[in-house]
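pasting for ref
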Amino acid sequence: MTKSNELLQGTLDLLILKVLTPGPMHGLAIADRVRQLSNDVLRVNQSALYPALHRLEHQAWITAEWGESENNRRAKFYSLTKAGRARLKSEEASWDRLSSAVYGVLRSV
């Protein structure tokens, strides 16, 4: 993430899990999808993306498999696991509570 768009710790993990919901994607495609879905507000740098992917893989929330990208290059494709889907559901609920609380404070002061 760029300095002006730094996210709360854990938010990148949530975004990655959500973006992988439809199916497997390689790293660059994940970053592009986050950028697209955020209307170019969130830009995920490789220096943040790949450590997050490794962390999620280590937690067994995603799996990785080598394949060929759309431009015929070898790439790792990441997929959600059953545990990853459960974690995503839990994290979305936490995010909803947090964002509602922050919004409540911003609205009242």
